[in-house]
Amino acid sequence: MKKILLSLFIFAVCVGMLCAQSAEINPDSVVSSKHKATIKGVSFDYTAITGMMPVWNLDGKPVAAINFTYYEREGVSDRSMRPLVISFNGGPGAASLWMQLGYTGPVRVKIDDEGYPVMPYGTENNPFSILDVADIVYINPVNTGFSRMLDKNGDRSYFFGVNEDIAYLSGWIRTFITRYNRWDSPKFVIGESYGTTRASGLALALQSRENIYLNGVVLVSATDLGLRRDGPVREALLLPYMAATAWYHKKLPADLQQKDLLEILPEVERFTIEEYIPALAWGGSLSEPKRMEIARLVSRYSGIAQEAIINYNLTISTNFFWKELLRKEGYTVGRLDSRYRGKDVAEGGDRPDYNAEMTTWNQAFTPAIYHYLANDLKYHTDLQYYVSGPVRPWNNDGNNTGNDLMKAVAQNPWLQVMLQSGYFDGACDFFSGQYNFWQMDKGGKFQDRFTFKGYRSGHMIYMRREDLQQANEDLRTFIRNAMPAPGAAAKY
Asked: Is 332 helix (H, G, I), strand (E, B) or coil?
């Protein structure tokens, strides 16, 4: 009898576990917790709200659960002039933990001053967070973080594409603003990497579909935003990034190496626009003396041997650059942050075996987000937190996000745009980001509303502590400058 009862008990426990594991996600549930922050030497209380909020289809039925975390400073009696910052990462498929625990949030992952992981893993107070001047919501789009489609066999095309992503998130943001009573607050969107594509498209979508007019858009490590950079332009624009990386690793000629980075870059940028792009455009008709001269200068600025540049027809692929620059020393350099060095099994080949920086960053961020959400924010779930989630195939058709951002700027006299880029980012390089601004505003009518800030770091501009502090301070300045005076009219 005891054996039968024990068997029934074990069976009941197993069934309960299976039911718990297969239970449907509650798309509309949050937990709230109270915390204290110390930012720029001032302590204050804040509330953190994290959980799920639904995405509805056209029939008004929930089709997905969006995982978010919302930080709101306490003691603010009037939020009509309290900015709301809407933040996310990119990928597509990247969760928002990078911005939340790396950059602007009130807590930060434990890393050293240059961005390398330290043990024990976890989080600590972020003394540079912008929560002192703005409330922040971090959004995980579908299949990132804990966000999920409610029907795993449902229509994936509703979510996974440039314009699809923008469409459902613009509606979700409207719902969030309504629920948390932020319609009268100044609003800012900040996206990183592919998140800059999303942010640029949202600027117009929020404005035209939801009547939500932004005060500012911040692009951190911008993509091409759907702007054409074919042929010689695409090949040449990377040279200033390569020069910065070569300078960092002390691979430039002595006369350049002894200068500061910001003294070198204007010279390389001028050469890129005025000589390198035209030379590549001439292609095979370029005279041999001119070909040799261009190869010599590209070698001078990139740290790659002139012979290799000639062999590759005056252009250097990023993969070859990452493998070749420190090959003699036995190292590769990172893709997203070329300050980081890696070691391949074999020194031969034309590309590194892995991205040195990602293996470093994942060590610190993944354990930290699980621990932080469960222990600090008291949010418990058996779902896997998708640091990089399954969103493929991704529909890239109709990517006009750069031009959409320009339309939003033209239509909204208050809208300001800032680009923040790391000089050592080889994936979304800083000079191509600036090129975006020039091409979006070909007539130069709106350049006073575009701001560029560069940092001595890579794709994650906030991994280096000095840049974390400066980048957040630049955000404070940007937010302040994009805030109209009370009673000011939005007009030209």
From this structure: strand
What is the tens place of the pLDDT at every residue in 251-270?
Answer: 999 999 999 999 999 999 99
Q: What percent of the chain has pLDDT over 90?
A: 87
Cβ-contact 46, 71 below 8 angstroms = yes
- pLDDT tops 90 at residue 2: no
Residue 114 tokens read as: 């240059």
Q: Report d(CA 241, CA 317) in Å as an integer.
A: 12
**Alpha-carbon distance 351 to 317, whole Å?**
9
Cα dist from 378 to 33, 48, 73, 290, 341, whole Å: 8, 10, 19, 65, 37
Domain range for 349 is: 231-357
* CA–CA distance, 102 with 113 (Å, rounded to integer): 12
Q: Are 88 and 99 in contact (CB under 8 A)?
A: yes
Nearest 5°: the CA angle 411, 413, 419 is 95
DSSP one-letter string for 388-452: B----S-B-TT--HHHHHHHHHHH-TT-EEEEEEETT-SSS-HHHHHHHHHHHTTT-SSGGGEEE
Which residue's entry shows tokens 């390389």? 268
Handedness of CA 169, 171, 173, 175 (dihedral sign): negative
Q: How many CB atoms within 10 Å of residue 289?
A: 8
How large is the average pLDDT for residues 67-88? 96
Phi first, then psi, for residue 417 (nearest 5°) are -130, 135
Q: How many helices (H) and strands (E) does the chain have?
A: 16, 14
Residue 259 carries which DSSP code?
S
pTM higher than 0.90, yes or no?
Answer: yes
CA distance 269 to 423: 13
Q: Are residues 172 and 57 in the same domain?
A: yes
Residues 377, 351, single domain; the answer is no
Identify whether residues 241 and 118 lie together within a single domain: no
Amino acid (one-letter) located at 296: R
Cis geometry, peptide bond prior to residue 120 (ω within 30 degrees of 0): yes
3-state secondary structure at position 252: coil
In the numeric block, which tokens belong to residue 492? 């030209």
**Cα–Cα dist 342/332, whole Å:** 5
Q: What is the CATH number of the domain that holds 167?
A: 3.40.50.1820
Number of domains in the chain: 2
Read off the pLDDT of residues 353-398 as tens digits, 9 standing for 90 and up. Answer: 998 888 888 888 999 999 999 999 999 999 999 999 999 999 999 9
| Sign of the Cα pseudo-torsion (197, 198, 201, 202, in order) | negative
